[in-house]
Automatic annotation (TrEMBL):
<keyword id="KW-0224">Dipeptidase</keyword>
<keyword id="KW-0482">Metalloprotease</keyword>
<dbReference type="GO" id="GO:0006508">
    <property type="term" value="P:proteolysis"/>
</dbReference>
<dbReference type="InterPro" id="IPR002933">
    <property type="entry name" value="Peptidase_M20"/>
</dbReference>
<keyword id="KW-0645">Protease</keyword>
<dbReference type="InterPro" id="IPR050072">
    <property type="entry name" value="Peptidase_M20A"/>
</dbReference>
<feature type="domain" description="Peptidase M20 dimerisation">
    <location>
        <begin position="257"/>
        <end position="367"/>
    </location>
</feature>
<dbReference type="GO" id="GO:0008237">
    <property type="term" value="F:metallopeptidase activity"/>
</dbReference>
<dbReference type="Pfam" id="PF07687">
    <property type="entry name" value="M20_dimer"/>
</dbReference>
<dbReference type="InterPro" id="IPR001261">
    <property type="entry name" value="ArgE/DapE_CS"/>
</dbReference>
<dbReference type="GO" id="GO:0006526">
    <property type="term" value="P:L-arginine biosynthetic process"/>
</dbReference>
<protein>
    <submittedName>
        <fullName>Dipeptidase PepV</fullName>
    </submittedName>
</protein>
<keyword id="KW-0479">Metal-binding</keyword>
<dbReference type="InterPro" id="IPR010964">
    <property type="entry name" value="M20A_pepV-rel"/>
</dbReference>
<keyword id="KW-0862">Zinc</keyword>
<comment type="similarity">
    <text>Belongs to the peptidase M20A family.</text>
</comment>
<dbReference type="GO" id="GO:0008777">
    <property type="term" value="F:acetylornithine deacetylase activity"/>
</dbReference>
């Protein structure tokens, strides 16, 4: 396979292209014009990859900044690869600047390195290698670049209103050997009115998290005590619990304290891998709990969300053999404009009924004065192991790695759902640490190159001339 030689020679170029793409801080922002619906930086990332493709001789198309594609080859059928260019916020505490693309110890660091800019670049150079080697293809290959994967998928909604779906394909946005089962997803917002009612310690604010689908790394609450004596007793009660990651800070306002919780971020689809700072803070505040609607909301977090991630406090814990157990992540809490608001991400097994889960959640919210303010859902996705696409990709992966692991299920939601006739295929290899959505996100250079080889072989196997 001559195209593999092209890949090896391109390693310096592959690394530099990824560094340049990482350097674009493509976090979702307010619209910045007709061709930048998700902000200027995401639009710039899309313009970057499409310009790269045009220089390689691919057909490029920008669909009003929502998404775009690069296409190569001819034929009636199309093999699609769906990637995304948007990234979650970087957060604090990085070893290297999150948008520098620093190479150190054989790794490329940066927000998006593994999710999903590294895989996008791997697919781009896989396609370039096929073109440069002159292999004969019987189908078109189209790389589709989404720009709103991390928050709403409006990119795919817009794209497939204007473009026909590829006949089949994959998204490099999960793990190897491949993901053929993806859980359903529920996105919910809870809210309640907050007043300075009640007596005792007043909860002025409770805030934490950045995105619904990210386990919160930090959370903080501001408390007002009746007097200095109460403040000292409250501080002692907080610290006496010995909860790791809890910090108590004095404030200039008389008889006020700030309580800060430090957690460990993780992807919202695997909340068990993180340490939720919001639920930790709710637990820590238990000895100080007073009366009123604000405290009722915190009590809900402690009693009904809790430190577990399986939804048992809401009576929604369930599982099945195809996709595993339900997970829940409380990703955002805000106290503002007289209300406390929460954003929750639930990943549900194939057998779960979303309306039934919603009803159970609503029943548990009511006693705490909370209600469901917004609700959306996405169905599960599944392709059987004997499906032709699954078999071809498994064969390619096994030949390259010698690993005969079986396909797995995930709580993550990937563009395979939008594609329909598709699966998630890499880039994470078995046994590797998960760094997506975390500080010091990286992709190893060796893995980036291995992914590029695998994707080139996969595209060739799926699109070669019959």
């Amino acid at each position: 396979m001559d195209f593999l030689n092209h890949i090896e020679k391109a390693q310096p170029e592959i690394i530099s292209t990824l560094q340049e793409l990482i350097a674009i801080p493509s976090v979702k922002a307010e619209p910045a014009g007709a061709d930048a619906p998700f902000g200027r930086e995401i639009a710039r990332a899309l313009e970057y990859v499409l310009a790269w493709g045009e220089r390689q001789g691919f057909t490029a198309k920008n669909l009003s900044g929502y998404a775009g594609h690069l296409e190569y080859g001819t034929g009636e059928k199309t093999v699609g690869v769906l990637v995304h260019l948007d990234v979650v916020p970087a957060g604090e505490g990085w070893r290297y600047s999150p948008f520098s693309g620093t190479v150190a110890d054989g790794k490329i660091y940066g927000r998006g390195a593994i999710d999903d800019k590294g895989p996008a670049v791997a697919v781009m150079y896989a396609l370039k290698a096929l073109k440069e080697s002159g292999v004969k293809l019987g189908k078109k290959i189209r790389i589709i670049f989404g720009c709103d994967e991390e928050s709403g998928w409006r990119c795919m909604e817009h794209y497939f209103k204007h473009e026909r779906k590829p006949d089949y394909g994959f998204t490099p946005d999960a793990y190897f050997p491949l993901i053929n089962s993806e859980k359903g997803q529920m996105a919910l917002k809870f809210e309640s009115e907050v007043a300075s009612d009640g007596t005792g310690v007043i909860l002025k604010t409770f805030t934490g998290g950045t995105r619904r689908n990210v386990v919160p790394e930090e959370a903080e609450a501001v408390l007002a005590f009746p007097d200095q004596e109460g403040l000292e007793k409250g501080k002692a009660a907080l610290l006496a619990q010995g909860i790791d990651g809890i910090e108590v800070l004095a404030l200039p306002e008389q008889n006020h304290l700030k309580v800060r919780a430090q957690g460990v971020p993780a992807h919202g689809s695997t909340p068990e891998l993180g340490d939720n700072a919001v639920t930790k803070l709710a637990q820590a505040l238990a000895p100080l709990e007073g009366e009123g609607s604000a405290w009722a909301a915190v009590r809900f977090i402690r009693e009904r969300i809790g430190r577990q991630t399986d939804g048992r406090g809401l009576g929604i814990n369930c599982q099945d053999e195809v996709s595993g157990a339900l997970t829940i992540n409380l990703g955002v809490v805000r106290t503002e404009a007289g209300k406390i608001r929460m954003e929750v991400d639930i990943r549900s097994p194939q057998s779960a009924d979303h309306e039934t889960l919603k009803e159970k959640i609503a029943d548990h919210l009511r006693p705490y004065g909370l209600k469901i303010a917004e609700y959306s859902t996405m169905p599960p996705h599944y392709l059987p192991v004997d499906h032709h696409l699954v078999q071809v990709l498994l064969q390619v992966y096994r030949e390259e790695t010698g690993d005969w692991s079986k396909p797995v299920a995930t709580g993550g939601r990937t563009y395979a759902v939008a594609l329909g006739n598709g699966v998630a295929f890499g880039p994470g290899f078995p046994g590797q640490p998960e760094t997506a959505h975390q500080k010091d996100e990286y992709i190893a250079v060796a893995d980036l190159m291995k992914c590029t080889r695998i994707y080139a072989k996969a595209l060739y196997a799926l699109a070669k001339e019959e």
